[in-house]
Specification:
Helix content is 39%, strand content 21%. The protein is built from twelve helices and ten strands. Helix 1 packs across helix 12 and helix 2 crosses helix 3.
Length: 308
C-alpha cells in the first residue's frame, strides 16, 4: 500500500494542530472503522516514529491519526518549542474530538497509542477521556520521572534557573531554547557521550534515518518546570479503566522505558499484555525491522481484540 496520508487540521483551543489521517486502502465509506490516535515522543513530529507505526496499523485495517504537538512542527502556537505536559495531553483529547467528527470512524471504537514520552502523555490523557477504548504504549517514558532522576540538588538548581529565565523574558530578554539532544553524532562524540541510548537518539533524529526538517531539536528552556512537576502515571490505579498493552525493548538503557513500562503495567487496573521485543533497544523500536514489525503485530492483535 502506498502511504498517502491526508493533511488535516484540528484545534486545541486557539491553536491549529497539523495532522496526517490515514485510511485503509479500499475502505467502504458506508462502514465506519476503528481508529487509533498516535502520540509521538518529545521533540518528534508526525512524519517520524509515529508515521512508522501509523502506516503499519493502517495496513492492518485501522484509521490512524498522527499530529504535531502544539507549539511544534507544522502546528501553530507561540512561543515555539514549548513542551508542556498538560497541553500535550489535551492535544490528544482534541485529536479524539476530531476523529469523532469523521464519517469513516466508528466513534465507539477509538484507541490510543503513545511512543516514548508520548506513551506517558497517552496514559495521562486516557485517565480522563474514556472515549479512548484501548490504550497501547511502546517504550513508554514518564517524562516527569525522567527529569526528576537528576536528583534534588540538580532539580533545585534547574528550577532556580527556570525562574530567572522567566523573569528575564518578562523583562524583554530573548527566549532560551536548548537542544533536546546533540545536533550531530560528531557533536555527541566531541562531548564525550558514549551511552548507547543517547547516541541512538542522535542517530535516529539527526541523520537521514529519521530526520525531518520540521523537528527543530529545540526545547523552550522554561518548559523544564512543568515537565519536572509532571507524573504521567498519577491516578492510574483509580482512573485508567481501559485495557492496556505495553511494548518494550529487551535491552534496557538509560531511558528506563522498560522500567516505566513495568511500573505502568503493574499499576494498571486492566493490564492485558506486556510484550518484550528481545534484542531491541529503545530507539530500535522507532523504525528498525524486525523489531518494529514484532511490536506492531502485538499492537494490532491487541487493538483488534478490544476495538473489534
Amino acid at each position: 500500500m502506498q502511504d498517502r496520508p491526508t493533511d488535516v487540521t484540528f484545534r486545541n483551543g486557539s491553536v491549529d494542530l497539523a495532522g496526517h489521517l490515514r485510511v485503509p486502502k479500499g475502505t467502504d465509506a458506508a462502514r465506519p472503522l476503528p481508529a487509533i490516535v498516535l502520540a509521538t515522543p518529545g521533540s518528534s513530529v508526525k512524519e517520524q516514529s509515529g508515521a512508522n507505526y501509523a502506516r503499519r496499523l493502517t495496513e492492518s485495517g485501522f484509521v490512524t491519526l498522527t499530529f504535531d504537538p502544539s507549539y511544534q512542527g507544522q502546528s501553530g502556537g507561540a512561543p515555539r518549542d514549548l513542551e508542556i505536559p498538560a497541553v500535550r495531553a489535551e492535544d490528544i483529547r482534541c485529536a479524539v474530538d476530531f476523529l469523532t467528527t469523521q464519517a469513516i470512524v466508528d466513534a465507539g471504537r477509538i484507541g490510543l497509542l503513545g511512543i516514548c514520552a508520548g506513551g506517558g502523555y497517552a496514559v495521562n490523557a486516557a485517565l480522563t477521556d474514556h472515549r479512548v477504548r484501548a490504550l497501547g504504549t511502546v517504550v513508554p517514558v514518564n517524562i516527569g520521572r525522567a527529569r526528576r532522576d537528576a536528583g534534588p540538588e540538580a532539580l533545585r538548581a534547574q528550577l532556580a534557573a527556570v525562574g530567572a529565565q522567566r523573569s528575564a523574558e518578562a523583562r524583554g530578554a530573548a527566549p532560551r531554547r536548548d537542544p533536546w539532544i546533540p545536533d550531530t553524532i560528531e557533536a555527541a562524540r566531541a562531548a564525550g557521550i558514549t551511552d548507547i541510548d543517547v547516541l541512538g537518539a542522535v542517530e535516529f533524529y539527526r541523520t537521514p534515518r529519521g530526520f525531518d526538517a520540521h523537528a527543530t531539536n529545540r526545547l523552550m528552556f522554561t518548559s523544564l518546570a512543568p515537565m519536572i512537576g509532571f507524573d504521567a502515571f498519577h491516578l492510574v490505579e483509580e482512573l485508567l479503566v481501559q485495557p492496556l498493552q505495553v511494548v518494550v525493548g529487551g535491552r534496557k538503557g538509560m531511558t528506563k522505558s522498560y522500567e516505566d513500562g513495568e511500573a505502568l503495567f503493574a499499576r494498571a487496573p486492566n493490564p492485558q499484555g506486556f510484550h518484550v521485543v528481545e534484542g531491541a533497544g529503545h530507539y530500535d523500536l522507532y523504525d528498525k525491522s524486525p523489531f518494529i514489525d514484532e511490536a506492531v503485530d502485538a499492537l494490532a492483535g491487541f487493538f483488534r481484540a478490544h476495538l473489534g
